[in-house]
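Inverse folding, one chain.
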């Protein structure tokens, strides 16, 4: 397993690829009773027909796990879009000295008040994806 940490764009592209290959949503969670003794907790999606994505025995932990999976599937695209928007705003621009400055953090047109690139915003995002905990 590689110990090299991905850069933010690579990490974002990997998440978008993984998510793009998943069953189209939105997903939902449900308790399905097949008989008095056969009750399962299910993640599914409503399209033309019910598609079962994941099915487990019903338990308090399974309920919470399924809820977390459904929430991640349904909300992660919004978060990824937000991170992509931040990346598009905080692009490097070369100063007259040849240094890379952040296009958003440097005051508009005044590179005397400059923020080097990557700026603290991008460094915080990079640090978050590289956190092993």
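Residues assigned per position:
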């Amino acid at each position: 397993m590689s110990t090299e940490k991905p850069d933010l764009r690579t990490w974002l592209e990997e998440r978008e690829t993984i998510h793009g290959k998943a069953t189209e949503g939105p997903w939902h969670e449900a308790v399905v009773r097949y008989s008095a003794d056969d009750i399962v907790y299910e993640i599914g999606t409503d399209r033309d027909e019910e598609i079962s994505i994941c099915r487990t025995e019903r338990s308090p932990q399974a309920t919470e796990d399924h809820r977390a999976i459904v929430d991640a599937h349904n909300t992660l695209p919004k978060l990824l879009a937000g991170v992509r928007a931040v990346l598009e705003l905080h692009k490097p621009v070369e100063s007259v000295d040849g240094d890379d400055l952040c296009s958003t953090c440097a005051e508009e047109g005044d590179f005397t008040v400059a923020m080097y690139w990557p700026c603290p915003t991008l460094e915080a995002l990079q640090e978050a994806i590289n956190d092993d905990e």
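DSSP finds three helices and five strands in the chain. Residues 60-89 form the longest helix (30 residues).
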